[in-house]
TrEMBL record:
PANTHER family found in the cross-reference section: IMPORT ATP-BINDING PROTEIN, LIPOPROTEIN-RELEASING SYSTEM ATP-BINDING PROTEIN LOLD
UniProt cross-references to Gene3D superfamilies, sorted A to Z: P-loop containing nucleotide triphosphate hydrolases
Family to which the UniProt record says this protein belongs: Belongs to the ABC transporter superfamily.
CDD domains per record: ABC_MJ0796_LolCDE_FtsE (cd03255)
Alphabetically ordered keywords of this record: ATP-binding, Nucleotide-binding, Transport
Molecular functions per Gene Ontology: ATP binding
ATP-binding listed as a keyword: yes
Lineage, highest ranks first: Bacteria, Bacillati, Actinomycetota, Actinomycetes, Propionibacteriales
Identification of the protein by name: ABC transport system ATP-binding protein
Organism: Kribbella aluminosa
Amino acid sequence: MTDDVLWCHDLYRFYRSGDEETLALRGVSLRVARGEVVAVVGPSGSGKSTLLACLAGLDEPDGGAVTLGGERVSHRPEAERARIRSRRLGVLLQYGNLVTHLSVRANIQLVQARAKGERPAPDDLLEQVGLRERASALPRELSGGELARAGLAVALSNDPDVLLADEPTGELDGRTEQVVLDLIRARAGDGRGVLLVTHSPAVTGIADRVITLSDGRIAA
Ligand SMILES: Nc1ncnc2c1ncn2[C@@H]1O[C@H](COP(=O)(O)OP(=O)(O)OP(=O)(O)O)[C@@H](O)[C@H]1O
């Protein structure tokens, strides 16, 4: 029994277009232990988003394996990957994880309808991110900072073992950034884990470990 809440071994991902082949991941292995926040940094094009998508089971690696909370997600049919994601994973993506025609509260309820087990009350989640008053708002009615916090509430609404986030603080002002970072850091308590992809020193500042990707590999 491993203590790792997220684990990947020897991940490879190739992209082909015509005769061109890009090796986006070249044998990436990493682990996130329970209670740990890990940040992944690296220059543009180094493979960070590809790695995040493979870890989330949103993309299928060409080689290697991924496990989430001890369950293998790689090399499984999409329906099974979706089931594991809905129970174990929260994903916060740079370009939003909200359904545009649903209110913030309805977005949370949508994720919760697919998840099993203990689920936090939507209004409690919104209270935590300081958006209780905006529960009925549509995503387009929110400011950038409110949208980031709503995205975090949605990512946490299935009470996930693992939170994966791509540039979670984007363009936020300093105060909102701190609120979001405090919530993410707190998320790694209770035996859960967080993996963040970022360019921001403020974000790497909350990490227990920082991993550098370079040209699809983990740099020494
Ligand atoms: N769908 C795709 N088809 C072809 N090549 C792709 C595709 N997605 C990514 N790539 C290539 O794979 C490599 C890794 O891209 P990726 O988006 O993972 O990097 P990144 O580190 O997240 O970059 P950034 O910091 O700019 O977001 C790049 O060379 C990119 O051009």
